[in-house]
Amino acid sequence: MGFNEFLSSIFGNKATRDMKEIKPWVDKVKAAYPEIAALDNDALRAKTEELKAYIRNSAAEQRAKVEELKASVENTELEEREELFAQIDKIEKEILDTYEKALDEVLPVAFSIVKETAKRFSENEEIVVTATEFDRHLAATKDFVRIEGDKAIYQNHWIAGGNDTVWNMVHYDVQLFGGVVLHKGKIAEMATGEGKTLVATLPVFLNALTGNGVHVVTVNDYLAKRDSEWMGKLYRYLGLTTGLIVHSLDNEGRKKAYEADITYGTNNELGFDYLRDNMVVYKEQKVQRGHAYAIVDEVDSILIDEARTPLIISGKGDKSTDLYAKADKFARTLKVQRFEELDSKEDMEDYYAENDIDYVVDEKQKTATLTQNGVKKAEEFFGIENLTDPENLTIQHHVNQAIKAHGIMKLDVDYVVKDGEVIIVDEFTGRFMYGRRFNEGLHQAIEAKEGVKIQNESKTLATITFQNYFRLYKKLSGMTGTAQTEAEEFQEIYKLDVVEIPTNKPVQRIDLPDSVFKTEKGKFKNVIDQVVEAHEKGQPVLVGTISIEKSEELSKMLKKRGIKHNVLNAKQHEKEAEIVAQAGKLGAVTIATNMAGRGTDIILGGNAEFMAKASMRKQGFTDELIEESTGHAETDNEEILNARKTFDELNSKYKEEIKEEAEKVREAGGLYIIGTERHESRRIDNQLKGRAGRQGDPGVSKFFLSTEDDLMRLFGGDRMKMVMERLNVEDDMPIDAKLISNIIDSSQEKIELRNFGIRKDVLQYDDVLNKQREIIYGQRDQVLNGEDLHDTIYKMIEDTIDTSVKQYLPDGPREHWNLQSLKDYYKDWLIQDESRYDFDLEDLEDMEAEDIKNMLIEDAKAIYKENEELLPTETIREMERVYLLKNVDTHWMDHIDNMDQLKSGIRLRSYGQHDPVVEYRIEGFDMFDEMIESIREDTVKMMLIMPKKVYEVKKRQDAIEAAKRMALKQAQAAHQVVLNNGEDEEPKESPIEIALKREQVAQPTETSGDGTDTANKTIRKGKKVGRNDPCPCGSGKKYKKCCGKDE
Known about the structure:
The structure is a single chain. This protein starts with a helix and ends in a 52-residue tail after the last helix. It is globular. 39% of the residues are buried. It is α/β, with parallel strands linked by helices.
């Protein structure tokens, strides 16, 4: 017995300890449930308000204290405000702790309410309750509730994700376990088909009772929309509001969605909204209201896979793209040598020179590097003396990206070219990452390589990593089917513990050992043989590949064998739901990239709804009518009524067929998962396996590998191939050995650690910027909240003068002072009477720098008071806010750009035995201090100069207007007609209005919620609606009598 096994025998393993900790909570829910189940419908719904009031009242005194302290801010001295804000922060944290205790107290009742509500919807087609104002408002917009007199009638079916959904789910015990884990701010790892979406309703309802808002984060808009409609039914019935964030939503719509008790949206949408909120110029333009609690669906995909690249809002850059084309032309002339792994200690330059090698690719580290030979050719090609000279860094950067584009980035693996655009393919899911671009010019280098239009480099206006965005939440939790392999990263980066939830029914899937072949050709031959064998007995097969290229190669081989099949990869992304829905049918064969592993359950026997719709399509029904066939909007349209009748008949027919077919599939062994290559991440392999054996169904999984696979080749595949050749092993002869599987697992673990290191590296750099971001965003909030900044500006005057005086009048002998430069610097905007500062050397001997500083401060404040007398007080206060905001945004935008440039070169410091991150932190904060000083200086300068200018312009304008009125009055007195007396002119903005106008400094390229530039987005127009077709709005009327009546 090993040491770990010995400890487990005494203390139990982690899974056992976790369940032991959670079980008492589940027991409490079970104990509370009978009392809740005995309530009538109205009493059940009334419990929501009762629990809300209990939670809010638990921290009533603390909230009153916070309001009192906030009200006293304006009357508190500037030096004491910091302490006041710290006190407010402390109490607000105490409020959250108080709420958490209250939530724990009501958890058994809250979970029981949700479970009983779900039960009643599953057992009743309609639930009748006393109508509230909320119900009446809901009935005007939702088809699942109607009002009859003083009653509201809720139906148990509605549209979710465009599909007719009948509620038939009730929480079982393991889902209660999952709900507790999510409420406690942990990750619930639940197997595919265990109902994670339903599990989330428990902690979502509970935490929404605080009124602080709950965010449910999904991987795409479709799931956000579907789940908000699907689970939103429960929440709305219980009196909670539900919002949905999708990229087409305008600012008002977003604000309303975030104000809801529960908000659904994608990680991209939420992250971009946070960045945009910190670019607005008026508080009212902000849409988010805080980050209290989030549940992240497919948490490994969002917090691990997508955490490699930051969210960026960009504006148009001014750099030319010509150099990318030139660097690409150069890269095409070079000779490359590929290595599985380079030995950094071995000098290979002589070998490179002898064989005319221009650049080398390290496939394991994914790097491309110029050799000395390549450097010489670059210098000749670009006509420069030394490529490594600082002035040639731009050329060096473009060349490096060009050889990386040619040497490392593969078409149809790392990216695809679609509609003249280079689109990233996510290496974990196989999905297209629309709107995301490789950074540091790599995307432009690939565009040059593929001969498509090279987009301009953009300028970063705002940026944040997903790690730092999600760490904004006071409480964070997540759910997925595969998290254990990344448990260390979840704990270190997010402080999230992973808890494995047992399955509702025992897993029947059989995971067979890997088979390893000498060549890829032999492997694929065996895969096809296995598919044919399974297909002949009716067993459905899902063949998993890691690239589009491999899936299409296997498809050709199956065609030659006459096997009908479907291919699912990024190129067929639009057909994903339809293809996956039928992957469990009798004899079905589906080839899929890893994209098939997320968010879609494969049901044995097939999906009746998709089959019914496919049949309707064959019968000639239009897409619009098929969409309407699952609707419930009242209509007298004969075509729609006929479509609904046809759908119901077909749906019932296929449901019966599926029951029989599902049994046949079970008898054939269930779904057979065939993996054709191991992925770098064990998690992705586990996802593929998890497609089979859902909810106690039978199933089989097996991986077929070859020594030529990328992962095998990088970790000893060549040595294994040599052994197989010595033993005269045939190409199609498999080796089934546990030892090989262990080696592969070990290799995957190494790569996972390397990838973790890359993500950690990204985070370390962003952490530096994040601290600065918090300071800047806090400064912006001060302005947007309309705080009185008078004392702050006075402090800025003192600080900026103090900095200048120290610069020009350093400690030491007076001859080292540069008083003239100080006078020149402040001339015309602060020093108005130069004679006050005319000192000879003798005068200066009797003076301290502090005396001159005090004089400058005195003069500045005198000018400030004069300005305050020229314009109304509130005008001056708003000017302070406008100018500070403008300077903060202008300098922050430039600072982000400068930090980007610093990061691109800082890694070279490692050659001098310096930690690049430490160097980046030190220099970054020096640059930040300089930026803060520039903000102070420019704000003070504007506040001393602009009020007087505005007053003078206003005075002149008033004089002109007065003269016009006098001339008009005299003309009228003389009975003369005055042409163009100004009555028809547009009213001009006054100088004060112009001065107080806030303008957004950071102007992003127009983006949708996913960050894509809409100007470059391919727009596909749907089928044109005919005049006599049903209106797409769902009214049931013909298009010409509804939305098309004005056409």
